[in-house]
Structure of LacI family DNA-binding transcriptional regulator:
Amino acid sequence: MKKQMTRTKRRTTQAVKIDDVARQAGVSAMTVSRVMNRESGVREGTRDKVLKAVEALNYQPNRSARRLAKGAEVHIGLIYANPSDNYLGRFLHGALGAAQRSDNHLIVDICDENLPASYVSSALRLAKANIAGVILPPPISGSDEILSVFQELQIPIATVANGKKSQKFNDISIDDEGAAAKMTRHLIDLGHRRIAFIQGQSDQNSSALREQGFRREMRAADLIVDPAFVAPGQFTYRSGVEAAEFLLSCDERPTAIFASNDDMAAAAIGVAHRHGLSVPDDLSVVGFDNSPSAISVWPELTTIDQPVSAMAAAAFELVLSQINDAADKERGQTDRGLEDCQLIVRGSSGPCRE
C-alpha cells in the first residue's frame, strides 16, 4: 500500500505531456488538444476518455509549458510556404492560440514555395533567433533539407501532414486517404459514375493520399477513373479555375467534380455557373478542408472538415513537450495518430440526374 502511494505521488509531480494523455486515452495528441481547447467535432465518448485521462494524470498544460525554461518565455518558430491563404490563416490562429495559452511566443518566417533553397535560408534565420523548437506545416513539412537543418542543430520539430515514418520528430496528420474515400463514396451513393478529380499540389503528401482515397473508392465501386477526368491543381483558386475549364470542356463532361481543397472547389462552382450549369442539379462539386471559402460560395460546399487550427495547436504543444523532457529529444517520440475527419454535406452535392 505504501509503495502504491509513492508511485501515485511521483506521477503527480512529474511533468505530464500531451502525448502521455493521448496514450492513456488511446487517441491522438490532436484530439487531446481539441478537447482541452473545447473545440467542437469531438465525439462525446472520446471527450470523456480524454478528460478522464487528464484527471488521472493531473495534466496541466499551461503550468507544464511555463516550466520549460524555468520561468523564461519560450520562442517557437514556424516556417510557411503554403499558397492557400485560407489554410494559412487557420493554421496561424491555432498556433498563436496555443502560444498565448502557454505564455510563450511564436516567431514566423516565410519562404518561397517555388524556391526550395529558400527553405534552408528560413531555417537558419530562425535558428539565429534562438528558437527552442519549430513547427513545419505543409508543404515544407516534407522537405528533407529543412528537417536535416533542425535535426543537426538539435532543435525539436513538430511537422503537420508530413506522412513519413520517423523516430526523429513528431507529426500531426489526418486520415487524408480515408476522408477522400468517404467523400467519393458520398458521390457514388448519390448515383454519380462520371466523377472527376482535381489534384492538389504535387509536393504535398496529402495530395497523393487524397487521390489514393478517391481511386480506392472508385475501384471498390467497380468504376473506372477516366484519365481525362483527372486534372492538375495547386491548391489555389486560379488552378481550380483552369482545372474546371479543362474538365467541363470534355465531350462527355463529368456529373461531379471532387476538388482536393475548398479553394479549387469554389473555383469549379464559379466556372460551372459561367458554363450555364446549375450546381448541384447539373453538376455536383465537393471540396476538402471546410475552410471559410466553403461557406462563401453559392451553393455552400459539401466538404471534409479538416481541423487545421487544432492540428497547429497540437503541433505547438508537442514541441513544448519535447523541450520539457530532454529524453524525448534523444529518443524521438513520434505521435502518428491519424484523425478521422467529418463529412459536411451542404448544397453543392446532389443526386445525379443522368
Observations:
- The radius of gyration is 22 Å.
- The first strand starts at residue 75 and ends at 80.
- The CA atoms of residues 28 and 310 lie 12 Å apart.
